[in-house]
Structures are given as structure tokens and as C-alpha cells.
Amino acid sequence: MKLHSIFFTLLFLTTSFLSAQEGVISGTINDGEFNDVLPFANVLIKGTTKGATSDFDGKYQIDIEPGTYTVVFSFLGYETKEITGVVVTAGKETTIDVTLNPASNQLDEVVVTTSVTQNTEASVLNLQKRSVALLDGLSIQSIKKTGANDIASAVRNVPGVSVQNGKFVYVRGLGDRYTKSVLNGMDIPGLDPDRNTLQLDIFPTNILDNILVVKSSTADLPADFTGGVIDIVTKDLPTRPEYSVTAGVSYNSSMHFNDNYLSYEGSGTDFLGFDDGLRDLPIAQSTNIPIPAQDGVTVRQLTRRFTQTMAAQQEQSFMDFNFGFTAGNQFNLNEEGDLRLGYLASFSYRNTTEYFEDYIDGQVFRKDPQFSENELITDRTQVGDLGVNNVLWNALAGLSLKSPLSKYKFNVLHIQNGESNAALLIQENFNVNSNLNKRDALVYTERSITNGLLSGYHTNEDASWSVEWKFSPTLSRIYDKDFRVAPFRINQNGTFTISPSESGDPTRIWRDLQEINLPGKLDITRKHSLFSRDAKFKFGGAYTFKNREFVVDQFSFPVQSRGGNFSLTFEGDADRILAPESIYALDTQQGTYVRRDSNISDTFDSDMTIWAGYLSEEFRLTDRFNAILGLRFEKFDLVYTGESQVRGTFDNEKILDKADFFPSANFIYDLNEDANRKVRVSYSRTTARPSFKEASIAEIFDPITSTFFIGNIDLQPTYINNFDVRYESYGEGTNFFAVSGFYKTFQDPIELSFIREARGQFIPLNLGDATVFGAELEFRRNLGFIPGWRNFNVNLNFSLIESQQNFSEDEREAREDNLREGETLADNRQLQGQSPMLLNFGLDYDNPENGWQAGIFYNVQGETLQIVGNADIPDVFTQPFHNLNLNVSKSFGKEQQSKISLRFSNILNDEIESFYKSFRATDQVFSRRFPGQAISLSYSLQF
Amino acid sequence: MMAIAALTMVSCGDDDGPSEPAATCSDGIQNQGETGVDCGGPNCQPCTVEPTCTDGIQNGDEEGVDCGGSCPNSCDTSGVVEVTTNITSDVTWTSNNIYELQGRIAVTNGATLTIEPGTIIKAFAGTGANASVLIVARGAQLNAVGTASSPIIFTSIADNIELGQTAGTNLNENDRGLWGGLIVLGNAPVSLDGDAESAQIEGIPVTDPNGLYGGSDPDDSSGNLQYISIRHGGALIGEGNEINGLTLGGVGSGTIIDNIEVVANVDDGIEFFGGNVDASNLFVWAQGDDAIDIDQAYSGTITNVVVVQGDISDHAFEIDGPEGSLQGAFFLTDATLFGLDANEADGEVADYRDNAQGTTRNVLVTGFTGIGDGLQLSDVELDNDGVANNYTNGLLVFENWEVVLPTGVTTSAEIFDDRSTIGSTFEADAATFSSAVDNNGAATVGADTSAFSWTYSNAKAGLGF
After folding, report:
1. Does B112 share its domain with B86?
2. Does B59 reside within a domain?
3. Average pLDDT over residues A858-884
4. Where are the domains of chain A?
5. Parallel, antiparallel, or unpaired for β A80-88 and A111-115?
């Protein structure tokens, strides 16, 4: 194991690096004028002769004896900043990142003095302040305060961000189609065949440096930016030795140590997040499966290949637990200390168990055929118990090499997730069918992402030119391995029957989605002078290749009988369906046999390529008026391979070929000399492209929802015009206030639409134009103005969003034909998945002196259109979930290296539910589950 | 360390299935439960049967099922016509060929498919969008007129029936779901949920325009369907959703439908989705769901029906009403329903549901399950308040039912059951509109069974019609 020996060598080198007597002050100096670092600035320890100059990356480092110092940062034409109370400990590193702002009056020297603590907290805010684009950042520090352990729950605290199903992140309530998630600025594949975005709950916070939510586009960002970009920035390489271990447990009273928890026999490696082969596809796609009447010997052999387990079993659930570690360091490769190698390794493991008792999902209610009747008619009820075990681990390893004028970075990230579900459901049908069914459903989903990042940054002696390049291949796979459903009809006398015509055949499905992304980009920046002020010209190009392959293998298990009620009952025991004695036997010609149910139109293989080039200029018209103008060009091609009976065969056919220009303009006007109050105005044109699955001829039956997805090969991209205006006021420290307005027009938005004539079939369509506009308010304040409340901060943000989506012709007619008496049809409706309101509130206490930290956080979003109704089926709306969490932690030990945290989730014990809503009718439940209340305890140690 | 180690791990398994058991049916050893060397038991072909040329199995040196090799019949495929694409112009299928239906085949708008008497159509296996079905689209004509001695036969590719025969030997009434079914769609009015004028027939992707049914022409004609036997169909097209033996969607009164037999279909035997075509001499045996199913305000007349329930059959009649605001009532007369007498679960006489409207007259109910230990009484139900209301308002009418009383039942009225919450006089009235008879011979109502002497079922089950 070569890697192991390299690792030990690194450990050895790092421990011998720092001399025992001295400590280190290091950090990054940022340019307050541009969203950039400030190279060649001076750093001096006041009262000593020690000092340093920042490198091209804005980084500096000073070795010094232990003590308390004041550090002075200066640069010609910029204000000078003094940081007081900097404590240096032997063998330790103290980090100070500062932002220097241009001195408005160049004759006087401006000195700004702040304390260390204020400075650290303000660093993300500084990034936000300096950015030309409209963005909101979330630093790892503030994520830690909320106690969130995955990105999806952390990002809730960003204004205008909402999270659906605890996984999918929407910016400004725009659906997942309009929110792009990137990793270190580069495209990564999604993990859900039905979504356009990436699920963020699988990204743990321990790999994070910060999360940036960019809301207005600039030319260097991809044009499919659409409504917003969430950039997951992984940890940068440390400048000091950094080792930590964490471990935690979480207990949920309604879910854990519960004897009714549902599970099923998994493989020996389920605890590692993948299946060891137990659930492998037993019959290759090329194998022809005969029917028993043709070849009983073969069909019997093939049927016997399937494992017998079909039933959900009760067992006691365990609690959640997690652990992880990180290690990182940097060391010099030469005597001058200007050639440095850094490394970072982190690992985390999380095992969570959820149990939902009496959870309701997929119920159906209909409008009465009599238009005078407002109350809804019950068509299907579905209630049951669900057990979910989730194993998630990730490993990140990175190396960086830094020379005086270049920096290289190499990162590898792997995320592995295995999710095992077992459910027992009772379904009653009243209308379209009339029956009572029981079904055992077992699902195992394996997800993995492997991402590599190789990047370089180069500059010249005076840093007037810089070149940055990145190449970041990703391989992702989502594999539903052996999804099993065993439906039994419950007869009136309480016995069970397998009744294909009423409840369907027993079914097993394998669905495999693999995607490769190969994005690369090059950015070149030239600092120059325009209108006798500093300006920055940026240009570059990017290329992205994506390939997605989707394969379905579906089998059902009819039971052949020869009179009587032979074996059709199995006494309701799903495990008996494929028991050896139940399998089709040649002597009796009776029993269960396998049949292939997948189709040619289930499967597809698509490629996307995007070529991009851009130019942008960032400049100042006056001292206070900053502008960035840009133009991006993108060439987009989509190539499709697939088959359908009606629409024929596509073999590597180009189905989309678009070349478009995307202009953008961002303006910032400083309302005062200190640049503490700003007005930002921006415009950009962006696009939203159809997904692989949507722009296809695929016709995929989903047995989970009993719906047919019909691809639309004629789908066109959506074009969006984005307008933003924002007023910002930066106070002392982290005090901040902002109010923004936005307006977006969508040309040909894509939405998954129903087809009136074919219930249960859905097709993506370019609908009539849509408009979205809204307002956001953000407020952060330290409560130090109240005596004794110096350590308290309050954080509030609130968004109101109005969306207007025109109806398709089918939808309008279907709605008109089903209006109740006295009901009128509006001109439009809200966008699917669009939250009309978002509110986040947090109050936190942070006392670095005694190590106590506490915070209470509240989050809610307004009633959201979840499912667009179809004719007599009304719209379904997700109800507000009032999420209140409390987090308390105490750091202790020498230098507060140890920390114990306690977190209470869902204090209000709210439930997650969706309702059917119809004119003057009582709301009816579509789905409901109780997440319960959890207490989590965790411990971390840094050394 | 774990991080680095984990990164080097690759979690891909291979896709090969588990290895085959060592014992096979050709290893020359009497193992794996065999009753002889390499024969018998659950795993191998029966021992008692030497490969013959009539066993319905491709064995011995046969090149196909019971043909080729040393068998007298050669597997000559000259009489086989593969049907793989839609029929878009006038075509005739002749009785000197076997037509192999491979996938979803539509006779499209404007085209006529003529099928000669005695023609055999064998359909491939397949489910979902790939299920082998014959769709007669709106505006197309099916001219399939068989005779009592030479019916037109739709069956599975697995059926060993040969040219000139009316039955194979290797399949029986329990072999279901081996192919799709026959779907006839027209332009007659249909009462749909949400008041759409037309709908896509279940399970056909909407990208296929040939799956639409319903319209505004009650006089529409889809052609002539006479003396047709449909066997072993009902492939799955969605969860709990299989193709019926004969599906009639929005078929108008210009169409002629008589002498139809459906055997061993997974779902319903014959289902009427709206429309107003008249149909007579219908025979359904051993269906998986309901024998005669009426929906969406079908408003034609059905005359002379025999249903013989099989072991997994549900209702003999399942009757629904209009779904939308368009109203319409059926008229069903002269039916004999043969039940299973020891049903432990379902297998009922009739279920009237969801706003059902129409008249059921002259029905003989015989051989159904009565009351006893572990037995489930087969009944005639009014399923909900809407139906009970229709009954009370005279929209749903029952006349002249006779019942051969099942075990433990003392009056004919006992099998009539109003399950609504609002109640009606249905159960009380049953004493008037129904009566008990001692045996089938004593019945004064029911089907004229002599009309079904031509059927495969009559011969296969020895019904003596």
C-alpha cells in the first residue's frame, strides 16, 4: 500500500516542521476594491522588526515567539489596518484574514483598528461586501453554530434559500431546474434521475470551507446559472498543522430503540454504504426469459436466481451515530520557504436510522362529478410504516504546491451513500378500483460520487497578469438495486390473495444511472488602468462534456396455478412468494415464475457538450461607482441514443444545437466614503436547459408512483432575463442590513405537465411564459448595544416571492371543465415548487472567553405548490414546516481544544405534510409524516 | 488513513448472477429431486413422457415446438406472417397463414384490416409499452368475421395450435397473461373524469395517437367482429393494470359485435369504456378479474352472456357509471353466470359501483359460493351511496333474476347486498325481482347456451352446450 507510506511520511515531516518555541501568525489579505486577494501587501508586528509581504495569493506567514501582539497591515493607496490582541502560542498558528480598502483620500493615512474576534467573524461578510456579483455566503463558523451536519440543512440559513425534502436546495424558491449546484466552481452530476439539481444532504459540512449562494450572474459563470448558483467550496489547504477528531450520537424518541422498526436482510457491507453483491442483477439484460409453457426448465432456473426476501421484518432500531477526522499541514520544500507543499485529508462516517409510523403518502382525492359539490371524494388512502437506514461516508484528500508565482492543487473527493428502506403499506382504493391491498416494499439505493480537481494558478512578477485553470472530472452513479414490491389483496374475510388485476404482480427492479462530467476551464485576468483608475479585464473559456446512461431492468413474478386457490395466498407472507417450494415446478406446472417487464424505451444514453468563451471588464467610473460588464458565448449540443416503438430509433443523433450570447451587467454605487452603504443593480441573461431525461424519447413507467414519464425530444431551452436591485448597509463587525428586489422573466419555461387524455402520464413541455418577482430582507445585528448582551447576535432574513406561470392549453381546459359553481379560473398559477415566503431567524450567544456557545434557529417556508392538479384531481400544496432547533456547546481544555455540543431538533414537534386543496372544500391529506424530536450529542477535539 | 484506504476501494461488483447449481437435467445423475435420471421432479421435464411430437414442448431433437427433427411436422414457416409494423392501408389476413403479432400493432385511421374465417393470430409475450396488442384505432375498421366452424383465434405464441385447428393442446384456462389483447377504439361518446372528450386507453403511452378513444359520433362504426376467440391474454401494462381480452373504447352503434369468446385473460374478459355499441353472444371463462366490465356511461345493449368463473376470477359483472357529466345507461339481458362453489376469497356475482346506471334483466346465477366455514358468500352488491341513490331513483334496475341457492343460503334475496351508508330498498326488493330455482334445468331465465356450442371452452371444459 504505497499510499499508506506516503501518508506516514507526510505525518513525520509535519511533526518535525515547527520549532517548539515559536508560534506562527498567518492569513490572507483581501482587496477591498475587487473581489480578489491583495498581493505584495506589508505585514508588520508592531513593536518588533518582524514582518512579511503577502504573496500573489494574498497569503502571508510570520514565525514569532509566543506572546500577545498587534499586527499592522498596509499597502500603498489603501487604508492601514491594525489588529490588536493577537495571541500567539508556542507551536501553534494564529490565523488573521483581513480586507484592506482603498484609501479614499490618498493624502491622509487611514488606520483602522479592530480586535481579532471581530475580524474573524466578519470575514465572510467581507467577501460578500467586496463581491461585484450579488452573493450570500455561509462560513463554516456559522454552519457550526447551527449544528447542521450536512449542507442541505446548513444552507437553509441563507436568505431566499429553501430546502425541499431535506435534500434539494432552491434559490429564491425557484424550482430545482433553476438552481445550479457546483463543486469548487465546477459542474457535478446530479444523483437523481428525475431532478436537474444535486441533492445536497449527502455533502457533509466537514469538507467545507464555505458555501456561496450567487444570485446575479457574471460572464465568468456558466450560462445555465439560471436563478442562482450554490457553490460548495471544499476546505482550502491549511497553513498550519490541523488535526481533529469528532464523534457524535443522536437519539430520536419516536424512531430509535423502537421494536416496530422495519428492515430487511441486507448484505455484509451495507454498513459501509454499498452492497457486496447480494443484490446484484441476477439475469443479464441480454438473457431471454421464456414463459413456462415454452421452456419450463429455463424459467425455473432463472426464477431460482432471485433471493427469497420480499417481506419487511420488524426489528429494534438503533440510534444515529457519526465520527470523523481531518488532518492537514503544510511544510517548506526549500530553505527560502517560498516553495511549500500542503496536504489535507478528511474522513467522516454517518449512520442514521429513521422510522415513520403511520405515515401517509400518495393518497388520491377527486373533485365531485357534480359541479355543485365542493367536497372532495376519497379515491385512494395509503398508510403504513417505513424504516430507513442511511449510511454515508466521504473521504477527501488533497495536495497543494505553492511556488512564488504559481500554485497547484490536486483534490480527490469520494462520497458513498447506501440507503435501505423497508415499508409495509395498506392501500385502499374506492373509485377507479375498489379494493384493499397490503404491500411490502424494500428498496436499496446506492449512490456514489468520485470527483477529482486539478487546478493551477499562475501570475507574473507584479501580479498584473494571472491565469487560472481547472479540470474537474466526476463520475457519479445512482443504482436502485433490487427494489422489491409484494402486493397482496386483502379479502373481505381477512385472507390474502395475489391478485394481479387488482393490486399488481410481485415486482423487482434494478435502475442504474451513471454519469460522467468532464469540465475544464481557463480564466485569464489582466489588471490595468481605465479612466485613470484600476481596472480588471478578464477573459477565458470553458468546455464541459457530460454523458449519462440510464438502464432499467424490471421483472415481475406471476403465479401460475392449476385450479383451486393454490399458492396465490401464501397466507400473506411475502417471503413465501419466492421460497424454493413456491417456484414453478415442472412436475406440477404450478408456482411463481419470473417475467421481464422492462422495455426498450426505458433505456437511454445521452451526451452534452458545452463550449464557452467570455470577456468581462471590471472598472470604476468614479471613486464610488464600480461596474462590471461582460459577455459570454455558449455553444450547447445534446446528442441522444435511444429507442421507442412509436418514435423510432435515435443513434447518436444531435437533437439540440444552440449557440447563444449571454450579456451581463453589474453596477455598485457606494453611498458613502467608507463604502459601508451600497446600492447594487444588475442584469443578466441566463438559460435553463432540458435535462437528459426530458429531452429524450424515453417512455419510462415508474412503479413507485405508478406514472409514465414521456420524454419530449422537441424540448427547447428556457431563456431567462434577471434583474436585481439591492441596498446594503455594513455596520460594525458583523452588523449588516440589506433589502433587495428581483424580477425575472422566463421565455418557454419547462415544466413536467400532465396529459389530459392519459391519466398518470407526464411529459415535460415548454409552457407559456412565466414571471417571478420578489423582495428579500436580511438583518444581522450584534446586541452589544444592550448592556450585558455583547455576546448575542440576532440574524433574520425574510423573502416574499410571487410567481406567475401561464397555463398550457390542456391545463387551462381541464381546469375550466372542473370549476365548482361560483369558482373562477385565475389567469395563471404559481410555479411548481415555488415557495411564496421564506423566513429564517436565529439568535446566538458566543462567548470565546468561557467557551460557551448557544443558538436558537427557526426556519419556515410558505405553502408551496407541490403537484399540479389534473382535471378532477386538485392541486397539492406542501404545508409550512415550523422548524425550531436549539444548539448549545462548550469548549474547554487548554486552549479550548475540546468541544461538547448538544442539539435539540424540531422543538415544536411539527409534522411534514401536504394537502389537496380545492375551492371551498375541506383540505385532504396527500402525505404526512412525523419527523419526531431528536437530541444529538457530539464531541470534537482539535490538536 | 481510513480516508486514503477508502479511496482506493472500488465498490463495483460484477453483473454476473449467482452460479448455476451443479445438478442439471442433463448430467446423467438422478439428483435434485428427479424421479428418474435427468427427468421428473420440480426441475426437469416429466419422466413418464418421452418426448413426443404432440407434447407441446420443444424437446427431443425438435427444431420448434413439436415440429422439425424426427417429428412428422416440419417447422415450415412459410405459413407464418410476422406483423411488426402498424397497418396503415387496407390489408387482409388469410386463413392459410399464422399471423405473429410482435409488439403493439395499430390499424390506423382510414385503414381496414380484414381477417378471414379460421385465421390464427399468435402474439408475442411482452409487457408494458412492449405488450403485443392489436389496436383498431379511431377511424380504422376491423372486419373480422369468423364462422362457428372456423372462428378467428387470437392466442399466444406459446400455443401449439396449428393451421386448420381450433385448439392447441399445451395450454389451458390457467395459462394467462401470455400476450396483450384486442383493443377496438371508436369515436362514440364517453363520459370521462373531468369531462374530457377523449382519453388515452390505459397503458398506451400518449406518444401513440392510436391509443385515443371517445368522440361525438354515436353512429360510428369500427367494423364487424363475429366469431372471435381470444385466449391467454392480459399482459401487464401498469401496476394492477392489465389489458382486457376485448377492450371496447368509445365504440359506436355502427359496429357489429357478436359471438365473442374470451378465455384465461388476466384482467377483465370484455370491458366497455363508454360508447353505445350493441353486443350479443358473449362468453367469458376463467378471467383473472371481472368477466363483463362496464364503465364511462356505456349505453348499448348486451344480449346473451355466459360467464364461467375460474379460480382467481373476481366478479362476473363489474358495472360502473358515468365519470363525467355525460350520462348514459346500459341494458344487459339474458345471462347465465356459473360460479365457483367453494371460494375462500373473492369471486362474486356482481358489483354495481360508482354511479352505475342501467338495467340488468333475466339473469341466472348458479354454482356460486355460499355460507360455510372459511367461505365467502358470493353476492350482488351495491357498492356505495351513489349507486344506492341511483337504485332509489330508478336509474339502476334489476328484473327477473333466478338463483340456484348456494350452500347455507335459504332465499334468493340473501345474495343481494346493499353496502351503502344511506341504504335503499334493494335488499327488500330482491325478494320480488329474484327467485330461487332448484337447478339450472328449472331456470326460466338466463342465456341461450346453444349459441356457444362453437366455443373452445365448450369443448375444453366439456360444458355440453
Report:
1. yes
2. no
3. 89
4. 1-121, 313-942
5. parallel
